[in-house]
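Chapter summary example: a protein plus FE2/S2 (inorganic) cluster.
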Amino acid sequence: MARISVTVDGVQYVDDVQPRTLLVHYLREQLGKVGTVVGCDTSNCGACTVLMTDPDGDAHGVKSCTVLAMQADGRSVTTIEGLASPDGALHPMQRAFHEQHALQCGFCTPGMIMAAVDLLQDIPDPTEEQVRKGLEGNLCRCTGYQNIVRAVIAAAGAQRGAPSASEPESEPEAAPEAAPAAERAEPAVTA
Ligand code: FES
Ligand code: FES
């Protein structure tokens, strides 16, 4: 066993772990951070993505199924459960996923959001192509990518202080036109 000291979602933990314990299993099984999920265990899906600081204190997205818990010793880790403010206010990326209908299943969404947060740290104003490239390590097996890309672009705008960017693109609502009388009332078909 090895003793590690790691800050997770703002709380410091000192724990004994097996040298082979993966960070994702430490988070889920020892700390109960089950918002971080295992989607593949082969480093393909990105479902396990969290932010972890490097020796300089800068946070980067990592696939926690490819990191040993021991490697998190002395580092800070942020999971999907620590992304919102302590008062419960959603992170701009969480809000954008909600507003742009980008929330998919519980497997892909946490990692997708964490990877997107990491992406905007590096590229605050990404193009759609850059978003797609930046998230290529995160899989949604249901191909729900379009709204995810929209959400990331919207979150980028919100973080830069452009609130309109978080609004869904839509035409101005036209006043409803009265239908001609003949079209208005279809008689109900009864058996
Ligand atoms: Fe880590 Fe799939 S569980 S990449
Ligand atoms: Fe999560 Fe497709 S894998 S919605």
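Key point: The CA atoms of residues 28 and 134 lie 26 Å apart.
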